[in-house]
Design brief:
Blueprint lengths: L1 H16 L1 H10 L5 H12 L10 H15 L2 H9 L1 H4 L3 H15 L1 H23 L4
Helix pairs in contact: 1-2, 1-3, 4-5, 4-7, 5-8, 7-8
Length: 132
């Protein structure tokens, strides 16, 4: 079961975050974080993100709101960049971040908006270069 969940998780992780990101993480893996990376792949990507109640778009929006509310800036930027794969639109993200501003505070929303603008600019630059 664990190997199936790992394989499913790796497929989902690549589909959402992209091969370049997953390859970069895999290349940097050591004995110290190998177990943690396996745990993430099996449980986050092989179980949670493969559920059939929420779509990848919906999971993306929820994750972005949570990362913004919790102040996890790197993870927020990563998940905003992943919207090119999940189908979450800029409008979806903007609405989620408006909720963050109201329910988690204006500073959290302000920071998240700044990060989103930067991530969307990076996405646009990559698209202009044909890198998407």
């Amino acid at each position: 079961m664990s190997e199936d969940r790992f394989a499913t998780g790796m497929k989902t992780r690549r589909a959402v975050l992209g091969d370049a990101h997953v390859d970069r993480v895999s290349a940097g893996k050591t004995g110290f974080d190998d177990g943690f990376q396996r745990y993430i792949t099996e449980n986050v990507w092989g179980s949670l993100w493969t559920g059939d109640v929420l779509s990848k778009r919906e999971r993306s929006i929820v994750t972005i709101a949570l990362m913004a509310a919790l102040g996890h800036e790197e993870e927020l930027a990563m998940h905003i960049r992943a919207t090119v794969n999940t189908g979450a639109s800029q409008e979806d993200v903007r609405e989620a971040l408006m909720h963050v501003a109201i329910y988690a505070g204006i500073p959290a929303g302000n920071t998240a908006i700044r990060i989103a603008k930067q991530a969307f600019a990076e996405i646009e630059q990559a698209a202009d270069k044909g890198e998407t």
